Amino acid sequence: MDIKRTILWIVFSMSLLILWDNWMRHNGKPSMFSPSVTQQNKPVATGSATTPVPQAAALAGNSQSPAEVAAAVAGTAALKSEIVTITTDVVKAQINTAGGELQYLELLKHKDTVDPTKNLVLFNAAAGHTYLAQSGLIGGAFPNHKSAFVVQPGARELGAGNEVKLVLESEAGGVKLIKTFTFKRGDYNIDIRHDIANASGTPVAPSLYLQLVRDGNKPGGESKFYSTFTGPAVYTDAEKFQKLDFAKIADGKDEHATKADNGWVALIQHYFVSAFVPQDKAPREIFTKKVDTNLYAIGSILPLGSIAPGATVSMDAHLYSGPQETQALEKIAPGLDLVKDYGWLTIIAKPIFWLMTQIHKVLGNWGWTIIMLTVLIKLAFFPLSAASYRSMAKMKLVTPKMQSIRERFKSEPQKMNQAMMELYKTEKINPLGGCLPIVVQIPVFISLYWVLLASVEMRNAPWLGWIHDLSAPDPFYILPVVMAASMFIQTKLNPKPPDPMQAKIMMFMPIAFSVMFFFFPAGLVLYWVVNNILSIAQQWTITKKMDGNKKV
What is the mean pLDDT of the chain? Predict the structure, then answer.
């Protein structure tokens, strides 16, 4: 039983350490485990009304490196621009004719974390937040994301149709670039087609680049008590899923796949993702770049080959920008569902989420789904839990004998250990019997934790009564209080530690953990409350049964 308490004490200490580290990082201070760069949000200089102009190399000539793609044209004169607004049933997008870049994207079905009266804005070109999708040509004086585009007439709202198109054209160096954005009903996936027409008298060999540009700040409203990933990611069939760090990009130390004919690049934040997915089997070069202070880019360069005079070449791509909904991501590109990152326990977490979706299809409410899932997991581990509680009940029954041995041999540790082992043998108790069944279950419980934390389906999802958003903390702290009470009851059911200091620590743990759970999403706390209540019922039943057998 001493080993069990030691394990619990280690878990408790590590939890406090991780919480403190998350608090430090949230407040812009260095992490205790890895160096970090304090992110300062610098106002974006503007070449046009809302276009960032970092101080970097110009896009010109035929020898552009991936790093140069991310740089804007230094000293470019301000262009006359028009903001074209496209509205569907799920998004409101704004494309700037200066560069033809997507500079604003409002998700109409998702509320802002900080101000729930407003919709969530993903892309933006404001002074406080820069997040853009850009594309253009390199390899000559061709149209790029700093060129003036002409917008073609057409519908700007979805209306009764199923899609709306926006066509932009720009010409430079005898090469015309036509961008066609296609927005579809109920879809966060934007089709972007690039047609490159050579109107010059000589062959040209441009390359198309697709890039996402973002500041390195965490989204607003992030919790102080747990940390989620914000940053770029790359996927190829060969290298699989790779998360990148803004600080390493700034230092030029990031490592990722650089060449492929498949895959995608993305920017990830809690619950949401933006990903450029070029057409499959098109060779590409993948790059990252620090564009300016606290401004980063990730993208792909796709060579278009030689284009003869009068010829036209086309390249298709997808830009998904929306919630991390597993079913939607799986349809767009292989591996895109991995942005919903469950870490090293993905192999366990994905089946758990699949089971959740099946339960939700029947119940139609994510709160009741969490409760039913917890019950099913508890039933699956019932034999292990029962073994653990039986072992704990036996330890509780022999606690007076253990205390007597400690008092008799308190100055003779070797004899105390021998007496303890003899007691375990006589009473047929395995001192690790209460720990091992719990250890086996830990990976499942951790996986479920990440499933609940990462699932955008919980966002704005109500349960009942006062719980209107399972991804937000309980507004009246009812669940955390119930959680603390359940942990206190569990502590009482466990054998009392013979050491007074250990006893005080065990009594303090429910208070410490309940403080942490006051700031956790209600869905996570609901899971722990249900799990604790079921555990209390099982442990109480087994303990009473063994007490009855002992009396007989």
Answer: 82
| C-alpha–C-alpha distance, residues 328 and 323, integer Å | 9
Q: What is the pLDDT of residues 272-292, one digit of tens each?
A: 999 999 999 999 999 999 999
Q: Specify the DSSP element, H or E, that contains 300.
A: strand 295-303
Q: Are 136 and 99 in contact (CB under 8 A)?
A: yes
SS3 163: strand
Which residues are paired to 133 by β-bridges?
Answer: 102, 212
Instruction: Report pLDDT for 498.
Output: 57
Contact call for residues 301 and 80 (beta carbons, < 8 A): no
Cβ atoms 221, 270 nearer than 8 A: no
Q: Whole-model pTM? A: 0.79
Secondary structure of 28-57 as H, E, C letters: CCCCCCCCCCCCCCCCCCECCCCCECCCCC
Residue 552 CB coordination number (10 Å) = 5
Helix and strand counts by DSSP (H, E) for the chain = 13, 18
What is the 3-state composition of the chain as percent helix, strand, coil, each rounded to the nearest 5? 40, 25, 35
Lookup result for tokens 């209540």: 533
The whole-number pLDDT of residue 423 equals 80
CA dist list (Å): 400 to 358, 405, 435, 490? 49, 9, 21, 20
pLDDT digits (tens, 9 = 90+) for 431-476: 665 565 567 677 887 888 888 888 999 998 999 989 999 988 899 9
